[in-house]
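This part of the workshop introduces the protein records we will be handling. The structure tokens are whole numbers drawn from a learned vocabulary of backbone shapes. The record below serves as our worked example for the rest of this section.

===
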Amino acid sequence: MSGLIAAATSAQQKRIDFRTGLTSGTIQRLPGAFSPLVAKLVQEIGFEGVYVSGAVVSADLGLPDIGLTTLTEVADRGQQIARVTDLPVLIDADTGFGEPMSAARTITVLEDAGIAGCHLEDQVNPKRCGHLDGKSVVPPDLMVQRIRAAVSARRDPNFVICARTDAAGIEGIDSAIERAKAYADAGADLIFTEALTDESEFAKFRGAVDTPLLANMTEFGKSELIGADVLQELGYNAVIYPVTTLRLAMFAVENGLREIASTGTQAASIDRMQHRSRLYELLDYERYNEFDQGIFTYPRDAR
């Protein structure tokens, strides 16, 4: 039964695993999962963690990434994903869904949801997608308050609190570095600098900040797509691929729907579909059957 209906690894152990991974010298790769099923695949393929993107949660609800989602909506999706995987889950908590007191409550809710860590950002609330223009950041002192509130609310000391700064594209990389140092001093365990442009900027940031660092390798944004091996050589501790799986899926779904609309059948798309047998394998159908047969001890014709 272990690991069948829910993950075999406890939330506490997943948090320990995440912290250990961040200081292991091996970069922790966290693809975004837009559903629990995707998270199961991320684990099966051999990644070190799972990421839940706020932009993806918004998009999945048919909303733009402008701070319209609620803590409950984000935490519920995070809990669904964390429940099925033995990997640690890092989740996007936007600006903490309010000011410092709300950020504190956010940490307790995410801990209860079985999440391994979250990141809070220094954008003005409501926020914007980190790779769009027109963003604004709060004064550093206000972000420090958010982080301190989050740290003070943490009950499991292994829950990772990551501070994201969007200042590089607004105030310049030197300002982002100073903010990162202040956020680390306030208790952030991990620093996420959004929208750095190329390898030289990632290297400059690493050279100036001692705290573990996370890189965002999102497509169609401001950052050059850099391989995980190069990021590891630069000294980065974690990398996320936040929207990749959603973009892959939606591209395939749109093409398949257009095929049906134009021809009246999905026959031409069959070779681009996951086979039912593979889906059943990923869902572990056989073990469910074995479990069911093992406990089904009363006659099938019983009334």
In short: The two ends are 28 Å apart (CA to CA). The CA atoms of residues 140 and 254 lie 42 Å apart. The first strand starts at residue 28 and ends at 31.
